[in-house]
Amino acid sequence: MPTSSGWVAYLDAAERAAVLDVVEDVTELLAAEEPGGPWPQVQLSEDPVTAPADPALRRLLPDASRGAPEVAAEFRRLTEGELRTTKTGQLAVLRSALVAGTPEVRVARTDAPAVAAALTDLRLVLAERLGIRTEADADAAYRLVVEGGPLDVTDPDGVARRFLATVSTLLGVLQESLVGLMLDGLADAAGDDPAGDDAAGGDAAGGDAAGGDAADGRSAGRASSA
């Protein structure tokens, strides 16, 4: 829901803990140095930078060009360090909102874009872990949450998959709600813009003036005819 300074969501302790776990996992994923990789010792190097081996991390740091590996490698060399730093910072903003209060999660207007981006990254990682590639895959994961039935504690893989699908669904609700409120805020700001009102007033005045000119023209025509 919107507030005077931003937006607030309500999460219970279990929901908050689950989201925080994923935030921590993805933060570690972005910070981890892979064998032969440049992170975190070298931010920008003359040496080639290979794509991440972990497919989830590769979703966060995709190739810039699929058809031109040399271009993709050069772009990765120039940008990957900064991109990792940006994404880690966005996750830190989300983490701060999650640990700041209970049960409210408050997001300042200035932090909303970073939080929305962090939620996107969390969902990308979970989608990879769940093997979601298509709309049908996404629907199946959602049905697992809402129609999955009792958990079979003797099936740890099934329990883990249900947990990831549940967190992914929760993140989707949070992200869609936040983005929707952000868009509503932009629309409200545009509607309240005094400059826009002045411009509209000016247009109306211009319309009146044009109408006056047209009336004068009609009068002139009648006078001339007379």
Automatic annotation (TrEMBL):
Segments for region (Disordered): 192-226
Superkingdom of source: Bacteria
Biased segments, Low complexity type: 211-226
Name of the protein described by the UniProt record: Uncharacterized protein
